[in-house]
Amino acid sequence: MALKWLIDASYFVAAVLFILGLKGMSSPVTARKGILWAGVGMVLATVVTFLTPGMNNFALMVIAIAVGGALAWVSGKKVAMTDMPQMVAIYNGMGGGAAAAIAAVEFARGEMHGVIVTLLATLGALIGAVSFAGSVVAWAKLQGVMRKAFRLPAQNAVNVVLALATVGLGLAIIAAPAIDPTLVGAFFVLSLILGTIITLPIGGADMPVVISLFNAFTGLAVGFEGFVMGIPALIIAGIVVGAAGTLLTQLMAKAMNRPISNILFVPMAAAGGGEAVEGEQKEVGAMDAAAMMRYASKVIIVPGYGMAVAGAQHKVWEMTELLEEAGVEVLFAIHPVAGRMPGHMNVLLAEAGVPYEKILDLEEINADFAQADVALVIGANDVVNPSARTDKSSPIYGMPILNADMAQNVIVVKRGKGTGYSGIENALFYKDNCRLLYGSAQQAVAEVIQHVKAMSV
Amino acid sequence: MDGFVAIYIFMLAAFTGYEVISRVPVILHTPLMSGSNFVHGVVLVGGMIALGEAVTPLEQAIGFVAVLLGAANAAGGYVVTERMLAMFKSKEGK
Question: What residues of A are in contact with residue B71 (Cβ under 8 Å)?
Fold first, then answer.
């Protein structure tokens, strides 16, 4: 009895630590303490679980924890900062898979107590399996294993039929007097296919929102399985994450001006390509670009994922320091969806050493562009496309953008003439005040640095 | 557990999750998503209990997978979040 009390009390403390941890993580000052608290809660909950009376298979348990934990720990330590989003996706998928597997064990044991328990177990299994399969696809896409967005003919119809079939099977499981292994097996297979099919047609640019959605899904699945197993700590942690993840997903979708239903069911490229843009792109050399910035009084840098992929953020910061020595005011403008997730670009710039007060959000900086001599766009595209303001037929119409086009001069560092990640033509590149500096971000910025140095001597 | 008690827990936890996140600055969105990803790694505990009660080889195999995946979720989620948040230290130094 005392043992049971100790276990329950520990789960309670763990639940409190999780909530305090999340609370801490929502402010930059306390964020590091937050993850530490949550970590302590996790260790506590895991350790006391070993004391649960009447448990077997300890050897298997220890092996699974050691292998799974070690593999994830090492891969998490090694991964580059630019690849963080897909790592979050894959770890999240594993959580969803774990929730589905718990449900599977309960089904295999065949003793469900009551309709509500069976219902929640089934729901958790469905959501967990969808989250697992979907997260793996999301990982494969961001990792570049799977490049193309596959779209079946009549994709939405297939989605609906598949979803209905899966839910139908789930209901059949709940209605059946005893657990039917064939039904359960088919149900899991269909759930996994559903998760895959839903995620396959989604373009890479929308992936952060989808990962966030699956994160909320996994939270819900964990909460439901917590109810099935009668562990309040699981219910609380799962549902808190489910709610927080839902809110986060909404915030992200809002920043992109793409309702979640659009992301899931309307492919970006097929949403209408927007008006053709007339005019031509005007090129600029590294030396002229350097001169424009060196003799400017204010430069605003708009970094995008292209800069991060090229690993150019360190070079960009080096250039910034040089320009500041020459008396130029340099600021960084971050679009809410710059990078692959909101806040991703801030993390990458922080890694390169850029101080926080130089990094400004869209609302903070948009008015400043009109006073800037140069807006330097590096590896960003859609987030500075003025078509979002004017062209109603453009797929990104209505998305808040950075007003880089309002600056006196715009320099865009770009690999080539093609359209960007989303395949949408950018009207900014054809504007009179815009010049294109072709080359990889890394190399182009390095050249600019050389020229700025030469001018400062 | 009493059904209604569980529903109360559901409801209160949902409000808590919503409130805890509602005033988060954009720069913390990614670390927070990663951090909440870590928190649902507590599914590991459920997996351990499921494996602990498993009897047949099939149950043991699925339970093993549950613990394996849960442990990966928790460990990976922690490392990744901690690495992202470690970068916020430099800010306070300045």
Answer: 64-69, 72
CA distance A311 to A309: 5
The ipTM (two decimal places) reads 0.92
Residue-wise pLDDT for A338-360, tens only, equals: 766 667 788 788 888 888 788 88
Q: Please name which of A416, A410, A415, A404 lies closest in space to residue A441, comparing C-alpha atoms.
A: A415
Buried b (16+ CB within 10 A) or exposed e, A108-127: bbeebeeeebbbbbbbbbbb
This prediction's pTM:
0.79
Q: Can you list the pairs that A23-29 forms with residues at least 24 positions away whose Cβ atoms lie under 8 Å? A: A23/B20, A25/B24, A25/B28, A25/B31, A25/B32, A25/B35, A25/B81, A25/B85, A26/B20, A26/B21, A26/B23, A26/B24, A26/B28, A26/B32, A27/B24, A27/B25, A27/B28, A28/A356, A28/B25, A28/B27, A28/B28, A28/B88, A28/B91, A29/B92
Residue B8 near chain A (CB below 8 Å): no
Residue B42 contacts A, CB cutoff 8 Å: yes
Hey, what amino acid is at A391? D
* Residues A117-159: tens digit of each pLDDT: 899 999 999 999 999 999 999 999 888 777 666 777 777 888 8
Q: Which residues of A are catalytic?
A: 382
Distances (CA, A) of A307 to A18, A144, A317, A443: 35, 17, 12, 11
Please name the residues between 349 and 388 in chain A that touch chain B, using a CB distance below 8 Å: 350-351, 353, 355-356, 359, 361
Q: What pLDDT sits at residue A320?
A: 92
Residue found by looking up tokens 């039929």 in the block: A161
Would you list the DSSP string of A297-347?
SEEEEEE-HHHHHTT-HHHHHHHHHHHHHTT-EEEEEE-TT-TTSTTHHHH
Residues A107-115: what's their mean pLDDT?
A: 80
